[in-house]
Every structure is written in structure tokens, then in C-alpha cells.
Amino acid sequence: MPTEVLMPALSPTMEKGNLAKWLKKEGDQVRSGDVIAEIETDKATMEVEAIDEGTLGKILVPEGTQDVTVNTPIAVILAEGEDASAVSAPSPQAAESAPPVAAAPLEPSPVAASAPATPAVVNSAVAAPPQPETVPEPDVPEGTEFVSQTMREALRDAMAEEMRRDGDVFVMGEEVAEYQGAYKITQGLLQEFGARRVIDTPITEHGFAGVGVGAAMAGLKPIVEFMTFNFAMQAIDQIINSAAKTLYMSGGQITCSIVFRGPNGAAARVAAQHSQDYTSWYSHIPGLKVVAPYTAADAKGLLKSAIRDPNPIIFLENEILYGHSSPVPKLDDFTVPIGKAKIARPGKDVTLVAWSIGMNYALKAAEELSKLGIEAEVIDLRTIRPMDVETIVASVKKTGRCVTVEEGWHQSGVGSEIVAQLMEKAFDYLDAPVLRVTGKDVPMPYAANLEKLALPSVQDVIDAARAVTYR
Amino acid sequence: MVAAANKSAVGRAPTAKAPARAAAKSPARRSDKMAAVPEFTKAEELEAYRRMLEIRRFEEKAGQLYGMGLIGGFCHLYIGQEAVVVGMQAALKQGDQVITGYRDHGHMLACGMDPKGVMAELTGRRGGYSKGKGGSMHMFSTEKGFFGGHGIVGAQVSLGTGLAFANHYRDNGSVTLAYFGDGAANQGQVYESFNMAELWKLPVVYIIENNKYAMGTAVNRASAQTDFSKRGSSFNIPGEQVDGMDVRAVKAAGERAVEFARSGKGPYILEMLTYRYRGHSMSDPAKYRSKEEVQKMRTEHDPIEQVRNRLLEKKWATEEELKAIDAELRDQMNAAADFASADPEPDPSELYTDILR
């Protein structure tokens, strides 16, 4: 039986990659461990090793192919006596735009990992997002050209543009310079701006957060990257006690213009200590602004606004969204105001409020609900603090019903705050209790099935929306 | 003591683990490696006398106001340690910065901040440096290069390293003094900051004010290495112990350290061997040390008395002249206290200002 070599994943969240180069050709003898090809994503490059001994019988995906879906067979290795002609070439999956089957755990039943061959099937926690809405950005002039960018590229461009604009802006964090960013968000910045402004720090979150805050108190504008916000718990004293409170405690004398950014919340299969959503933690604190974008355009426009803002900003990204592409306006200086929510999908029957990756669930649910005759209005909150309560209340006055969606836990979650705001400001307009769809009240488990159960699902959102609309 | 016993049990020589009272018997602990103390000129002695006495009279007045209920919350007095900030300030230039922890009144006065504004902040009035919203531990003056006033033990070390980072980034030739105590010296972020400061050669002088007690815990009960000048050794940061009760020794060491940092060689550590006469805060009766220990320090090592005695011995000043300086300072502190008592509280609208810029 010929052995299939599958397109490997560089990370649990990778869905596609490019086949950069074949290092062996058809007919070559290979042994287990031989490097046979190189694959790359926008994040990294990796060598593919032969997994068995034999002859490289057939190359199924030629070098230079872009967007090869993870787990696609890329070659076959033949044992002695086997024939390449026995191998039927699979239908090419390269450059497909549909989300890979292996990465669709939002469906009610788990997708079994059927391929026995190595590498292991990767179940991404969340599928590729629905096509971004075409509702134009209110801040974008009509007729503006849009280019498709990943959130990763959009974030990098935002930093680069602001660093070109203002010499006081610099970026510091673990692996941001020579390594080009642990998640490649700072790719190319060292080359353009040099080591003075793109600074690799030791692995000392508490210390370098404090150094960043001190530099901001002296008038610089640091962008402090946390490899993930899980590690920022080491630094939370400096973020809250020093960055957020000093303007007040100094009677307005000491400003702290600083951006703390990095991926927040669950990625995929990294268990409890690496999968926590801190949105509600930071949103509790006066003196901070908390931003959590969903689209690439918002990521770019909001990060540029955050860097210019004279206050400390918590900029919560999401690892799973980094590789997702959406249209970004091609403007010299595109910014999105902090504190403004956006109607991502208009509707009349129920309001869904989400942000960051929660939008994935909300938009998919809205599509399904539409088939049931329920038109959901989806609000992308974008900024969690200060919260655009006005936009939520205006929508709920129209729909009379509301469901909040977040991956964080329910107790004292952001959804709880939205519920309270609606009780105070829209009680007379509500036709049903407001429901919260949240992560389950457990530490994040590692096992794939349990992890999926711990996260909210599209079905959860649909169920909640049907419950509040009594349909 | 358990740790010490264990160490003895495995045959290691017990390090200085004597009980607290015995350890503090020779408080200035002048060691052989301390540099010789250079003499001050008459003008320097008079200036040091005035600056140190200003702090002492301020703190005494603050203690009084606290007792009268005009100052609330925490209030940590600096009495006994005056030579440290006055000597160090004499080593600074315009543009240099100072940052410290919660025992900060002396640092602010040394930086040239107005006693009225500091006292009014202690009483929580609108004329205080933070408009009454910060209190004793949280005051700032960017004009005077004073960056707080921080209530979280050790936080100012990372923040001060960040101020030095900004100087380095701007290549402006300025140096940051980051003060902290023997208690803060055991915080993890201090060493994270040491590492980055040396790695990036930041212009910062770390001043460890070793007053022998972290709140009520004697240094030998909390610190495995009680020679704090060595605390930077694993990062290759040079350090020295300084007689922090002798303003001349402090100034000389300060000049060496500041010059080192300013010339681009990176951070420097000064351990100031000093002593606070009062408790940790106003509510601390300081039962963890003997009256005799405190009295011995006051009579044999008082930083102000030392200067006073030299001025009189050298006939650089008469008793009357020194009394006149004292009277002037007492008047000034009375005026500060009057201001701080009469100044109105912040307008209620201030509740919602200065949260975001």
C-alpha cells in the first residue's frame, strides 16, 4: 500500500500553506527523516520529512502551488514492488476558497479524523470566517479601492505606518525583532526600522511591561507585544496599577500613551493556561481602553488609532483570525475610531452582539437563522471599553431581543455588562430576556472533543436566538 | 531561622544570621571597601544642612498633622534618611529624573518641589501636587523631574528603568535615579529590570535605601544576601555600599555612579546604609527593635547632627546662624501646614477628571 505524504500544519491554527520547493524528485529513494520538500505560510517555513522508506513515487502537488489545504496528499512513497500507476491523483485542492473539512468543528457533530496517515489531522477550533460583510466602512469615502489582506498583514502595516509617522513609536516584546514575531505580526519591522525601535526583550513580562510604562511616562509611545495575553498576567500589576491609574493619581500630570497588544483567548489545542479570554478582566478597569477587532480593516484602523491615543490601550487580537483575509481600504491613512461599534449585518428580529472571534459564531448563526426566517442584526462591538452602548440600545429598541456572544466565561463577563446596560436603558423595549452565549464554566481542556464542547458554538447562538424570538 | 539552621546542619558556615537587634548594633556598618569620604566646602555643608533640615521639619510637621487627623491613610516618614536624597540630588543635572516608592516626601523636597503642594496633597486638598487624588504615596512633578511616588513595592524599579530607556532612546544624556528599599530589593521585577538595564546599557542608577527593616522584618530575616551592593553581580552591574548617614559620602558615590551611567556604561547600584527613626508608617510602634538601637543611631549617626557639628567645629557657622536657618524652615513648614489645612478639598467634579486623556 503506497504511503501518502500529507500537507502538514505548522501550527494548530494553520489551514493552508504554499508548497515552496521539492528537494527530491520522482523516482528518488528516500529514507525516513529525509527532507523531501519545503512548505511555507506567511508565518514560517518548514521542511517536510519523509515518513517512510521507499521511492518517491509521485508528486501530486507541484512546487510553487499556493494555498494547499492542510492534509491534502502532496506525494506518495512506494514500497518495494509498488507502482506509481496504482495511485490515483486526488482532485487538486489547492487554491480552494472553501474552508477545509477538517477545520469545521462548528458543526453540531465532530468531524472524525479519517486519514490514518501522518501528520496528524489538525482540527482548527474555528472555521474560516464567513465572507466579510460588504457593508462599507462609514469612515471610508465612496469609491475607495479595497485590497484583501490577512489580519496579520493589516496589523503589521498599521504599526509600520505609525512608526513612519512618529519617531516616538517603537515596538518591544519577546521575539518581535530577529525572529520576526512569534506569530509574525512584526514581520519586516526590524529590517525597516532597526534594532533601536524594534526591540527583542528577555522573557520577563512583568519587567518589560514596567519598562514600557516608564518609557510612556517619559513621553514615548511604546507598542508592547505580549506573545499571548496569557503571559500578561505576569505583568498585570504594571498594566493596571501603573499604566491605567497614574494619570488619575497624578492629577492629570503623567500620561501613559501605550499599546499592549497580542493574541487573546483560545487558539487551538493549547489547554487551559494558554487559552484564556481576558476581555472582561481589562474591561473592568477605568483608565484603560479595550479594543478587540474582528476584520482586517478594523484591526488596521483601530491599531493606528490606538497607537495615536494618549491613553493605555489593551489591544486584544486572536490567533485564529491572524491568517484570515478580508478587504482593507487602500487609503494612505485609514483609521477607525475607538469606542464605535459597527452594524456588521442589518436585521430586524434579534440583535446579536459580538466582537473579535465571537463574530464568527454570530455571523454564521445569522446566516442559518435567516434560512429559518429570523433576520438577526449583528453588532460588531470592536471596542469593549468605552462601550458603544448607544448602538446596542438603538438596535434592541428595534428588535426587542438580544443575544451576546463571547468565548470568555459567563460570570462577570462582557455579556453580563451588556445585559445590565439593557436592563437599565432598554427594559421597556425588551420582549424576551437577554441571553448570553459564552465559553463553558471550565478551564479549557486539551482533548479535541472536550475543547470543542468548552467553546461556544454556532448552534448555541442559533438556539439562543430562537429562544428569545420564541421560534 | 529554619533556613539558617538547615545550612548549619549541612556544614555550611552560617552567614550573618544574628538576631535583628544585634545585627543593627553597628548600623552604618562602614565596611573596609567603602571609599574615603571627601570633605565638603563651607557652602556645601550649609546647603546640605538646610536641605536635610527642610525634610526633617517637613516630616515632623506631617507627623503632627497626621496625629490631628488632617492626613489620612498611609503616611511613611523619612526622618533619619535625609542624607541619602540630599546627597544624591547634589550629583544630578537638569533633565535627570527621580523615581521612588511610597516613602517619598524627602525625595520630592530634594527635587525642589514646593512643601505647600506636597503637604496639601497629604491632606487631600485641591492645591496638592495631584489635586488631592494621589495622597502621600502618589505625587509627581514633571517640571522637577520627579516621576513618583509609587505604592506598589518594586514597581518603580521597572518604571525607572523605562524612564532610563527613554533617555537612551532619545540619546539626551539624562540619567534616572530609581530608589527602592531593602524590602523591594527582593521583588522579582527588580532583577528583570537589572537584566534589561545592563543588556541595553541604560543610564540608570539604582539606589537601595537599606534602612534595615522592610516594614517590621529585619534584613537578615528576609534576605539571603544582605549585602545589597552585590545584588547586581550576576548581571555584571557594579555596586558599592555607602554610608548613607554621611551626606558627603552619598554625594561622592552619587557622582561616581551618575557619571558612570551618563557615560554610557550602563546601570550602577548604590546601597545606602541608612536608618529610619520612625516606624514603617504612622500606625507602627516599631516593637521589632529596641529603643536603645534607635537612640544610638540618633546620637551617633544622625545625618543632620554630623553636618551641624562640622559647621560649628570649623567655625563655618555659629549656633545662632544655624538656629536662624531652623527657625526659617519651621516657619516655612508652618505655612505649608496652614495652606494644607485651609485649602479646600477638590471640587466634586474632579471625581471624573483625569481618568483618560
From TrEMBL, chain A:
Region feature Disordered, mapped onto this chain: 87-115
The EC number(s) this enzyme carries: 1.2.4.1
Uppermost EC category: oxidoreductase
Keywords: Lipoyl, Oxidoreductase, Pyruvate, Thiamine pyrophosphate
Ranges where the Lipoyl-binding domain occurs: 2-78
Natural source organism: Ancylobacter vacuolatus
GO molecular function per UniProt: pyruvate dehydrogenase (acetyl-transferring) activity
UniProt xrefs under InterPro entries: 2-oxoA_DH_lipoyl-BS, Biotin_lipoyl, PDHB_mito-type, Single_hybrid_motif, THDP-binding, Transketo_C/PFOR_II, Transketolase-like_Pyr-bd, Transketolase_C
Catalytic activity, as annotated: N(6)-[(R)-lipoyl]-L-lysyl-[protein] + pyruvate + H(+) = N(6)-[(R)-S(8)-acetyldihydrolipoyl]-L-lysyl-[protein] + CO2
Cofactor(s) listed: thiamine diphosphate; (R)-lipoate
Name of this protein: Pyruvate dehydrogenase E1 component subunit beta
Subunit structure: Heterodimer of an alpha and a beta chain.
Transmembrane segments: none
Keyword Oxidoreductase found: yes
Function: The pyruvate dehydrogenase complex catalyzes the overall conversion of pyruvate to acetyl-CoA and CO2.
Cited NCBIfam families: PRK09212.1, PRK11892.1
